[in-house]
């Protein structure tokens, strides 16, 4: 896997993935940025959430769960000192559908956390306390 990050101006950067997709990253105005994109550390959180939700949805699809919506809400804490590394990350999955089995959702979240999500497992191995939780929202049959 390869990527390139190019500095544009101030604290503004464009990252391009090996697959040819680009994303703008920027810093806050008080640090020389213009707030045109997410911060690089926010990108780490977004990537972790994306990796994990992909796993969860893939497993729920394989177990034939009727998922109509899914999101992962991510919160994190960082160290007060430099380097301001993540010290804690919480991933909370909100899975919506009809007749979802709690055991299937629980197992999908556990497998992502323990076996499949390279991003969260890597961060956990680096000492970040990572926790996972979920809730199921039953979709209204009339919807």
What fraction strand? Answer: 35-45%
Mean pLDDT, rounded to whole units?
96
Total number of strands: 6
For the report, how would you describe the main beta sheet?
3 strands, antiparallel
Rg calculated over all Cα atoms:
18 Å
Could you give the distance between the termini? 42 Å
The helix content, as a percent range, equals 25-40%
Q: What is the count of helical runs?
A: 3
Largest beta sheet: strand ordering: 1-2-3
Helix-and-strand structural type? alpha+beta
> What is the succession of H and E elements?
EEEHEEHHE
Task: Tell me, briefly, the overall form.
Answer: elongated
Low-confidence stretches: none
Structural description of this entry:
- The chain is an alpha+beta fold and 143 residues long.
- It has helices at residues 40-62, 102-116, 118-125; strands at 3-9, 12-17, 22-25, 66-78, 86-98, 129-138.
- 32% of the residues lie in helices and 37% in strands.
- The strands form 2 sheets. A 3-stranded antiparallel β-sheet has the order 1-2-3, with no helix packed on it. Strands 4-5-6 form a 3-stranded mixed β-sheet.
- Helix 1 (40-62) packs across helix 2.
- The protein is elongated and about 50 Å long.
- The protein starts with a strand and ends in a 5-residue tail after the last strand.
List the helices and strands and how they pair.
Elements: E1 3-9, E2 12-17, E3 22-25, H1 40-62, E4 66-78, E5 86-98, H2 102-116, H3 118-125, E6 129-138
Parallel strand pairs: 5-6
Antiparallel strand pairs: 1-2, 2-3, 4-5
Helix pairs in contact: 1-2
Q: Could you name the key traits of this structure?
A:
32% helix; elongated; alpha+beta; three-stranded antiparallel β-sheet; three-stranded mixed β-sheet; 143 residues
């Amino acid at each position: 896997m390869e990527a390139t990050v190019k500095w544009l101006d101030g604290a503004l950067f464009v990252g391009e993935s090996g697959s040819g997709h680009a994303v703008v990253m920027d810093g806050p105005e008080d640090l020389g940025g213009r707030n045109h994109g997410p911060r690089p550390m926010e990108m780490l959180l977004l990537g972790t959430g994306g990796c994990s939700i992909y796993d969860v949805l893939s497993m729920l699809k394989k177990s034939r769960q009727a998922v109509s919506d899914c999101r992962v809400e991510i919160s994190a804490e960082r160290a007060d000192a430099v380097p301001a590394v993540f010290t804690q990350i919480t991933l909370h999955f909100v899975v919506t559908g009809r007749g979802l089995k709690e055991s299937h959702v629980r197992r999908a979240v556990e497998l992502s956390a323990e076996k499949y999500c390279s991003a969260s497992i890597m961060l956990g191995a680096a000492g970040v306390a990572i926790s996972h939780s979920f809730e199921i929202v039953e979709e209204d049959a009339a919807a």
